[in-house]
Design goal:
heterodimer, A: 460 residues, alpha+beta, Uridine Diphospho-n-acetylenolpyruvylglucosamine Reductase, domain 2, Uridine Diphospho-n-acetylenolpyruvylglucosamine Reductase, domain 3, Vanillyl-alcohol Oxidase, Chain A, domain 3, 3 domains, eight-stranded antiparallel sheet, five-stranded antiparallel sheet, 15 helices, 19 strands, 23% strand, globular, B: 347 residues, alpha/beta, Glutathione S-transferase Yfyf (Class Pi), Chain A, domain 2, Rossmann fold, four-stranded parallel sheet
């Protein structure tokens, strides 16, 4: 039977783009995070919507699970095939199809990476940019949007899913469906004013269909960019500081880092406030406004801006930040995962102290990173753990620390982002039963044979 | 253990009050200066302690060499005054802490002490002037003088004797060095001013970087091409502690044919680069100083600004360049005169 399915897949995509070889199944069974490997039966790389449709038809016929995969960098194991089946690697569908300069959006295929779009815009439309997450450039646009990712403009513009203008999706049963203005006009300008069906695919971890195209918003790319670094030593101040800075409407991005490494930063909170502008006068005005909004902390000597000369700012201004990868490999062995809990700003102090407590318990240096979302409507509070993938005890220790962080986040009143399978269960246990029942009904209606990424968001 | 040699009687009997009346950042007339001096001598609260910009200039203004600035820092620390926000102070004190990683190294003279700023080597210790030199650097030989800006004499007292001993033990004695060239003005000032003021012995001969440059340039006199440049000189805070080195600047300019422009904020009236004052959170003052300083350079017709201190260069260099003046370290100026290409700081 396996051979028949393999041949059928090879018939659809060509035999160069299907594999059941042990080494490839090994690679596709895991991501750089802590989750246990789950081996697929086949790996397939489609090139077109029609090929995706044909694969889904086959999967329905044969009742084979299908797991869509972007860059494979989600870290929480969401593209591991929990019940085997086909991993649908979308990387060959990576074209940039249209840039609308005036309405500022771009239409891309689902396998288009962050780095590809960034390079393309830099080369062809340097006055435009998209919001870039601090993941490696091989992360896909689609993957990040569909997990409600965030990035370098999220303070100003919200979750990346809020920057989505429209989708083309192959439904689990094989029909191609367009979502947003592109369903009705040739343009991909907006999800409004139609009934917003994008929610059927956002945050569902590939359990409701296979996204093949999407449009995202682009933004002006001002010529000048600067970063201000504000240092404090009391987490209780942070909600007010975040509120004050975002209240100025001057910061494009606002992150807070609190890490035990390097050791001279222990116990301190470093707020990185990013400012962009078209002129020196504009950027000076913005920086001055932000500075003055924090004046009371400066005057009381409780917080201050670090003097950082331009020559030293480059590594803080680049997108994505390579500094993140340094921490990710701090234990060597390339293992890295974090609980990025989405929570209200006022929970910062408690979340911070919980992070210290868990890291101490697991005898690992604490590392927390916070990205402010949408003018402080909420934040992504990340508890990060690096581990050595070659040391299974180290991986399992990080896994336990992450699970405890997930529980802590939920108990505080937050929700783990891109939750691992065990964390999904924790969320569902706390979810309003009518909400989880609705999720179940939607999923059953869209995917009657239960082929899409089974094992995720499973509601009993 | 290390006590400042400050004579209260000398201070009390001083008729000039130059340390306070000449201060460029706290405006005091003679009567106000007398009152603040009285408070300082009695150990009472004085606005001087909280308003001091830590520019070090009063060390130079004192006609008796009585160390008024070091005394201010002692009093600030004793009274728990923090010129900079406390988290910044903590981070800065920790960041340059000794690492205990000293080891013997074979060196060939001349040896240049880069202090904790080894990162400047690839930009500044380049070209024929530095053929055959050895460099030393690192937190373990850091002079720590910058903590004067944070009211932390205690940190200098704790770390400097060990740093001096490290230089002696691991480098000077092992390699039979007759002298150590101080790349950073601040190191030389530490060894020649702060250390004797607090009774820390320096068992080697420090040489100012400009003296080293003068020697090397004189040896290459025949290669020097006169530079038709009008140069503004940015004198750093540390140079207030060693004003005897000021003539070296004029000698170097003369040697390369550069004209030091006459301007308001030079020599004893020099203004701070602004970096420390920004670190203190006094941004309006820092911006005002930077603007006045750069405007003064422009009005004097400078085409370049020569820095002594590398930190001043990174703090003020970009703003100077935006106004059309070339920012240079003194060693860069010398290299230009020798016909060498400079490596860009942005590379």
């Amino acid at each position: 039977m396996a051979r028949i399915i393999y041949d059928a897949l090879a018939e659809i995509v060509g035999k160069e783009y299907v594999s059941d070889r042990a080494e490839e199944l090994f690679l596709y069974s895991r991501d750089p995070g802590t989750m246990d490997p789950k081996k697929p039966d086949y790996v397939v790389l489609p090139k077109s919507v029609e090929e995706v449709q044909a694969i889904l038809h086959l999967a329905n016929r044969e009742r084979i699970p299908v797991v869509p995969l972007g860059g494979g960098l989600v870290l929480s194991g969401l593209s591991r095939p929990l019940k085997g089946g086909i991993v649908l690697d979308m990387k060959r569908m990576n074209r940039i199809l249209d840039v609308n300069e005036k309405s500022r959006y771009v239409v891309v295929e689902a396998g288009c990476s962050q780095g590809m779009l960034q390079a393309y815009l830099n080369r062809n439309y340097p006055h435009l940019k998209h919001s870039i997450p601090d993941s490696p450039p091989s992360a896909t646009i689609a993957g990040n949007i569909l997990i409600h990712g965030s990035g370098h403009m999220s303070q100003a513009t919200g979750f990346h899913s809020e920057m989505l203008n429209g989708l083309e999706v192959v439904l689990p049963t094989g029909e191609v469906c367009k979502i947003g203005s592109c369903s009705t006009t040739p343009y991909w300008f907006s999800r409004a004013p139609l009934p917003d069906l994008a929610g059927l695919f956002l945050g569902w971890h590939g359990t409701t269909g296979v996204v093949t195209k999407l449009a995202i918003k682009l933004y002006p790319n001002p010529a000048k960019k600067d970063v201000m670094m504000f240092l404090t030593e009391n987490p209780d101040y942070m909600p007010d500081i975040i509120s004050k800075v975002t209240g100025t409407e001057m910061a494009e991005d606002l992150n807070v880092s609190a890490s035990q490494l390097p050791d001279y930063m222990e116990g301190l909170q470093l707020s990185l406030i990013y400012v962009t502008a078209n002129t020196i006068e504009e950027i000076d005005f913005k920086k001055r406004t932000i500075r003055e909004t924090l004046r009371s902390y400066i005057n009381q000597k409780e917080g201050g801006f670090m003097f950082v000369p331009t020559i030293a700012k480059g590594r803080f201004i680049e997108t994505p930040l390579r500094e993140m990868t340094k921490f990710a490999d701090s234990k060597k062995g390339g293992g890295f995962e974090y609980v990025g809990a989405i929570m209200p700003i006022e929970l910062f102090p408690e979340a911070y102290r919980k992070g210290l407590e868990i890291a101490a318990k697991y005898e690992t240096p604490y590392s927390m990173a916070v990205r402010i979302i949408g003018r402080a409507h909420c934040m992504m509070f990340a508890y990060a753990y690096a581990f050595n993938r070659a040391d299974d005890n180290d991986r399992k220790k990080a896994q336990r620390a992450l699970h405890e962080s997930n529980i802590a986040a939920l108990e505080l009143g937050g929700i783990p982002w891109k939750a691992e399978e065990p964390a999904q269960k924790l969320i569902l246990e706390r979810m309003d039963p009518e909400t989880s029942r609705l999720m179940n009904r939607i999923r059953a209606a869209l995917d009657p044979n239960g082929i899409m990424n089974p094992g995720n968001w499973e509601v009993k | 253990m290390y006590q400042l040699k400050f004579d209260e009687n000398v201070c009390a009997s001083c008729a000039t009050h130059d340390c306070l009346t000449r201060c460029q950042y706290i405006k005091l007339d003679i009567e106000q200066a007398k009152e603040e001096r009285r408070k300082i001598l009695l150990g009472e609260d004085s606005r001087v302690l909280s308003e001091c910009a830590t520019c070090y200039a009063c060390e130079e203004y004192c006609p008796y060499g009585n160390h008024p600035f070091y005394q201010i820092v002692e009093l600030q620390e004793a009274r728990g005054i923090h010129p900079a926000p406390k988290p910044i102070e903590k981070q800065q004190v920790r960041m340059l802490a000794p690492e205990g990683k000293m080891d013997y190294r074979e060196l060939s003279a001349p040896v240049i002490d880069m202090c904790a700023f080894g990162m400047f080597e690839k930009f500044s210790i380049q070209g024929k002037l530095f053929d055959g030199v050895s460099t030393i650097s690192g937190n373990d030989i850091f002079c720590n003088l910058m903590y004067l800006h944070f009211a932390k004499n205690s940190v200098i007292k704790e770390r400097l004797p060990k740093a001096v001993d490290n230089i002696r033990k691991y480098y000077v004695e092992k390699n039979k060095l007759a002298e150590v060239v101080c790349f950073h003005d601040e190191c030389y000032a530490t060894f020649k001013s702060w250390a004797p003021a607090f009774g820390v012995e320096v068992p080697f001969k420090p040489v100012h970087f400009f003296e080293f440059l003068l020697r090397e340039m004189r040896e290459r006199k025949g290669e020097i091409r006169q530079l038709p440049m009008r140069v503004a000189y940015q004198r750093p805070c540390s140079n207030r502690l060693i004003p005897e080195t000021q003539p070296l600047v004029d000698e170097l300019f003369e040697l390369v044919g550069a004209e030091r422009v006459q301007r308001k904020y030079d020599r004893e009236n020099a203004l701070c680069c602004g970096a420390v004052i920004m670190t203190h959170g006094r941004d309006d003052l820092a911006e005002d100083i930077r603007k006045r300083n750069i405007d003064d350079m422009k009005e004097a017709g400078a085409t370049a600004c020569v820095f002594n201190c590398p930190y001043c260069l990174v703090a003020l260099g970009e703003a100077v360049a935006q106004e059309g003046m070339m920012p240079l370290l003194m060693s860069d100026l010398c290299r230009l005169a020798l016909g060498e290409q400079l490596k860009g700081w942005g590379e």
